[in-house]
Design a protein that fits this description.
heterodimer; A: alpha/beta; Rossmann fold; Alpha-Beta Plaits; 2 domains; 6-stranded mixed β-sheet; 4-stranded antiparallel β-sheet; 29% strand; B: mainly alpha; 11 helices; binds adenosine-5'-diphosphate; binds magnesium ion
Chain lengths: 302, 254
């Protein structure tokens, strides 16, 4: 079953089309990386999934049921834009409020557990307004995680988190999906981080889903290349271009795409008297893939 | 099968528990109770200490700061019929405006409505809570009036009415609270994050209804007054509540 199924979703703000004809499928147990530039409609889509905004058009199913189904809605955990905390109350009080909100069993125990998970147990008595951005974000994550949601929706959760926070986040999410069968939608700009955990990707552009792929498909689609650092960059580039179909330059490295092997390229350059300092095989990153895709999209439209 | 720690929502009960937790944790409630208590003390003491001449003695009895006896109340609005406990209905507007807009500003409204599709419990819980906190301010005012009256040396005599009349008068006013709370709530869910709009809007609507309060709740009230106020309170709470629910159902929460 799919955790989320969206068909032809649209949301307008006056003349502005924030989301237009968006399709989205999030399989159960997936960590769905939701990628797109600022203002492309990620938050709007997430708000609609959470029932916080009314779409102008489109069908949404959560676990095969309608969005208005109370049982399904009750299993959502979300952190969208900001954690909904009262600034004048303590972190603990805010967490207890959310625990009451979702009718959590053993609230004190569960809240303490969740705060411990995000390493905020020492700041439970802090007033929320006195928390730093990163601490607030951690509280927001702890709040969304309370009571094991079946669907977790995180909007740019890594923003403001330090390295430790990001690592915790990664561990928690992987653990949740593996052990608790939780499905996660996570939007982020930090593609390098997303790449480490996501099992599926959805790329949104100007309110439209332009690509949905699984991590394996992406792995296959992302071309491998041999990266080589020759002493004489220019002559090496000329030489390699004669033999291989695609050679590009990045910083002090040359990238040779296609079925070249490292030994073969190094030997080839060595024969022509060019010494090589470093050689590796690599795969283009999600970020590069994304940028490429965006460039292609630009060309299609203009 | 995965076990969820979340139990089926105990809808109204969990909503009410959160609202009461917030109310008692917020300084707002204590400030309003403090204001409600000091208001009659200030009014009664200031107006009687001022010169002490017969002409400036606006209040001759403590109970004038609560309400007036029906024949007097029906006449034009003089200073005593303005400066009485009915002012607290405006205070309720301020409380509702701040309390509700805080939920939208803080993002707490997102947390509630993401997991609840039906908005009825939210509305009902708010009306109950706000009526309750309104009742607390009325009691504080009543006590303040007694203290203020003692300090100012005013008469505690009940002319043209009785203790029963006074009790029914207070109860009738409290019974009107759901009416005012539901109207204030309606404005506030419409205004959402805009605190100024919800306070100003609620104050304006309360001002429209204000002149009817002295007639509905004179000092010599009886069971009929209480009954009418209760009926009015419940009918308005129901209609106002339904309208609030309609607005929440048909607008974006964020
Ligand atoms: N409440 C709103 N009123 C008007 N326009 C909005 C509102 N929310 C979002 N938008 C617009 O919709 C577009 C998509 O916004 P958003 O979903 O927040 O993008 P993202 O989260 O991908 O950065 C933006 O152009 C934004 O300006
Ligand atoms: Mg956003």
């Amino acid at each position: 079953m799919n955790a989320v199924e969206i068909h032809n979703l649209s949301k307008f703000f006056g003349q502005k089309k924030a989301v237009s004809g968006l399709d989205m499928v999030v399989p159960e147990g997936a960590i769905y990386g939701f990628i797109g530039e600022n203002g492309s409609g990620k938050s709007t889509t997430e708000k609609i999934i959470c029932g916080l905004m009314r779409p102008n058009n489109g069908q949404i199913k959560l676990f095969g049921k309608d969005l208005s189904d109370e049982d399904v809605r009750h299993k959502i955990g979300c952190l969208i834009e900001t954690p909904g905390c009262f600034p004048n109350l303590s972190v603990w009080q805010n967490m207890m409020i959310q625990a009451a909100n979702i009718s959590l069993r053993n609230p004190k125990e569960k809240v303490a557990e969740a705060l411990k998970l995000v390493r905020m147990e020492g700041s439970a008595s802090n007033k929320f307004r006195n928390c730093s951005l990163g601490m607030k974000q951690r509280v927001g994550i702890a709040m969304a995680l309370l009571g094991n949601p079946a669907l977790l929706i995180l909007d740019e959760p890594i923003n403001g988190l330090d390295a430790d926070g990001i690592r915790i986040m990664r561990e928690v999410l992987t653990d949740l999906t593996l052990k608790k069968k939780c499905s996660v939608i996570i939007s982020s700009h930090i593609l390098g981080e997303l790449e480490k955990i996501a099992t599926h990707y959805g790329i949104i552009r100007r309110g439209k889903m332009i690509k949905q792929v699984t991590a394996e498909e992406l792995e296959r689609e992302c071309p491998k290349y041999v990266a080589i650092k020759p002493l004489d960059l220019n002559s090496a580039e000329n030489l390699l271009s004669e033999k291989y179909i695609k050679v590009t330059r990045k910083d002090n490295f040359l990238r040779i795409y296609g079925d070249a092997s490292p030994e073969e390229t190094v030997n080839y350059l060595f024969k022509h008297g060019i010494k090589v300092e470093e050689v590796t095989t690599e795969k283009i990153s999600l970020e590069e893939y994304y940028i490429d895709l965006m460039k292609k999209g630009e060309n299609e439209i203009w | 099968m995965v076990k969820y720690d979340r139990t089926k929502p105990k809808k109204l009960k969990s909503m009410l528990s959160v609202d009461f937790l917030r109310l008692f944790a917020s300084p707002l409630l204590y400030v309003l109770i403090g204001v409600s208590f000091s208001l009659p003390v200030l009014i009664l003491v200031m107006t009687t200490l001022n010169g002490g001449e017969e002409s400036t003695l606006i209040f001759t009895s403590v109970w004038q700061s609560i309400s007036s006896v029906s024949e007097e109340g029906a006449t034009a609005m003089d200073i005593t019929s303005m400066m009485n406990i009915n002012l607290l209905f405006f205070l309720t507007s301020v409380l509702v405006g701040i309390f509700v807009s805080e939920e939208f500003k803080s993002g707490y409204a997102k947390n509630i409505f993401a997991i609840r599709h039906k908005k009825g419990e939210y509305v009902l819980s708010k009306i109950l809570l706000l009526s309750f906190s309104g009742a607390l301010t009325f009691i504080a005012y009543f006590l303040g009036a007694i203290v203020g009256g003692k300090i100012a040396g005013l008469s505690f005599e009940l002319t043209n009415t009785s203790v029963t009349g006074l009790i029914f008068c207070m109860l009738s006013k409290i019974a009107l609270l759901p009416l005012f709370s539901s109207i204030d709530l309606l404005i506030s869910v419409f205004a959402k994050q805009k605190t100024w709009l919800s306070i100003l809007g609620s104050l304006a609507l309360s001002a429209l209804l204000f002149p009817t309060i002295p007639m509905m709740t004179p000092l010599n009230s009886g069971i009929i007054n209480l009954f009418l106020c209760l009926a009015g309170g419940i009918i308005f709470a129901f209609c106002g509540g339904l309208s609030s629910k309609f607005i929440l159902d048909h607008t974006d929460i964020v």
